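User: Please fill in residues for this 132-position structure.
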C-alpha cells in the first residue's frame, strides 16, 4: 500500500486566510480566523475568532485581496455615526483569487478558475461578474 505524499509546507497567515476565503466564500472574518488559529496552534480558538488580526482592516488587503459584501445596515454609535454589517461576508477579488491559486500551486493542488464556483447570492455576484 502506497501512502499519499503531501508537501511539507507551512503557510503564512495571509496565505491560509486567502485559501480559506477561496474555499469558503461568504463566511465571516471570525470564521476564517478561527480556522487559522486551529491550523497554527492545533487547538480551538476560545476567543471565537475575536483576536485582533490586522489583515481584515488593513487597506493593503481589504478591497484589494478580499472584500466584504455584507449589507451595511447596522448603526454603530461612534463619532462619525457610520453603519457596519452585522456579520461580514468575505469574498476574494480577482487579484486575491490569483494569489490563492499561487498558494494552491505551492501546496501541489490544482488551481480553481475564476467564476468556476457557484455564484454566491447578494452583492458578491457583482464581484464575479465584473471580472469574468
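Assistant: Residues filled in for all 132 positions:
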Amino acid at each position: 500500500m502506497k501512502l499519499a505524499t503531501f508537501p511539507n509546507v507551512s503557510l503564512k497567515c495571509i496565505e491560509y486566510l486567502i485559501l480559506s476565503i477561496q474555499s469558503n466564500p461568504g463566511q465571516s472574518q471570525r470564521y476564517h480566523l478561527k480556522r487559522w488559529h486551529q491550523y497554527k496552534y492545533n487547538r480551538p480558538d476560545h476567543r471565537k475568532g475575536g483576536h485582533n488580526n490586522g489583515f481584515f482592516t488593513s487597506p493593503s488587503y481589504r478591497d484589494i485581496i478580499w472584500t466584504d459584501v455584507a449589507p451595511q445596515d447596522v448603526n454603530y454609535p461612534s463619532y462619525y455615526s457610520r453603519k457596519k454589517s452585522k456579520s461580514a461576508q468575505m469574498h476574494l477579488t480577482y487579484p486575491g483569487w490569483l494569489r490563492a491559486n499561487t498558494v494552491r500551486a505551492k501546496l501541489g493542488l490544482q488551481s480553481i478558475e475564476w467564476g468556476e464556483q457557484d455564484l454566491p447570492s447578494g452583492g458578491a455576484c457583482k464581484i464575479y461578474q465584473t471580472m469574468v
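For context: The domain at 13-127 is CATH 1.10.10 (Arc Repressor Mutant, subunit A).
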